[in-house]
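Much of what follows relies on a compact textual record of a protein's fold. A record is reproduced here so that you can trace the correspondence yourselves:

. . .
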Amino acid sequence: MTVCEKFVAKTYAGMEELLKAELEQLGAERCAISRRAVTFEGDMDMLYRANYFCRYALRILWQVHQFTFRDNNQFYGEIFKYPAERVMTADHTLAVSVTMSGEMFRTPLFAAQLAKDALCDRFREKNGRRPSVNKDHPDVQFHVHIYNNHAALFLDSSGESLHKRGYRVSSHPAQISEVVAAAMVKLSGWEAQCDLIDPMCGSGTILIEAAMQALNIPAGFFRNEYGFFHWKNFSQVLWDKVTAEADIRDDVPINFYGSDISARYAGMAKANIDEARLRDFIRIRTCAMSHSRPVRTPAFVIFNPPYGERMAVEDIENEYKIIGDTLKQQYAGCTAYIISSNIAALKKIGLHATRKITIYNGALECKLMRFDLYQGTKYSTKTI
C-alpha cells in the first residue's frame, strides 16, 4: 500500500488556484487552498514531481510531525521525538526556520533555537555526535510553523526557491519572478495559438517562461539542485523515472519576439535565452516600445513595464501614455496583458481594460490588465 504523506506547496498571493489545478493535474490528492499555499497529499513520487513540474510553486514542504504543546519543554520534547536520522546523518548540516503567531514564544528565533537543540540532541543521544548548523546552505532545511499552541514540523524538499529555474545567467535590476511570469502567461489564456510578444522584455523572463510552456519543458528542467537530493532516503531511480516523464516538444508553429530599449538588457535576454536553449524560438532586438510592432496578427502582447519607483510621477505617467498610444496605433488585432503596481499610471494607457486580475509580484500588489486592441476606432478612454 502506498504511503500517503502531507505536503504544502508555497506560492505568491493570487496564484493559489493556478497551483491547485497544476498539482491536481500532476496527480496530487486532497488539494486544498490556504493562504499563499496549497496543501496536498501523495507519495515520494508526487513530491519529486511537484518540485520538477510545478511552474507556480515557490517551494514544496513535507510535513513530518504535527503536535500541540503547553510550554517550552513539551515543544522541545515533541521535536525530539521526530526521527530525523531517517533523512540525515550527523555528517549533514541543518538549519531551522520558524514562522509563528501567538504568544507561546518570545521570538521566532528562540523557537528555532529550541527546535534546533532538540534535533541535534537526539542525534547526540542516538549516535554520539551532533550535526553542525549551516544557516545559509544547509544540507537539510527544517521549517516549524507555530499557531498558538499548535505546531507542525516540515522538511524543505526544494532547497533554493523554485522560481530559480536554472537558466538565468544575467539579471535585470527590476526583473520579474519566473513564477509570476509563468502565471501571467497562463492567466492570459495564451496557449501557443499565436505569436507572443514582449516589447519591454528586460532579461527575457516572460518570453522564456512562455516558450517553456509551449514546448512543454518542465519548470525544473534546468535546475541541478534540490533539497531532497541530500536526504538519506533520496531515490535516484525514482528521480530518473520522474524526469523521464517529460514530453518535450521539438517545435511549435508560432514565434516569440522580444525587444528592449536598452542594448545591455537585450543582451541579457539573449544570454538567458541561450542558457535555456531557446535561441531557435525567441527573437530579440534593441528598440523602444514605440518603434515595435507585431510581425503578424493576431498576437498576444504580454509585458511588465516599469512601475515607477525610481521615476518622477510625470515621467512614469508619460511612459504609460506612450505604451497606450503604441498599442492603439501599432498593435491592432492583438491582445495585450500588462502587469503593474502603479494604478495611476495604468490609467494613462487610455484603453478600456476588459479584464483585471490581482496578482502579487513578490510583496507588491499588482493588477494584470487585459486590453483587446481592435482594428479601427473601437476604443474607450476609460481604463479602470
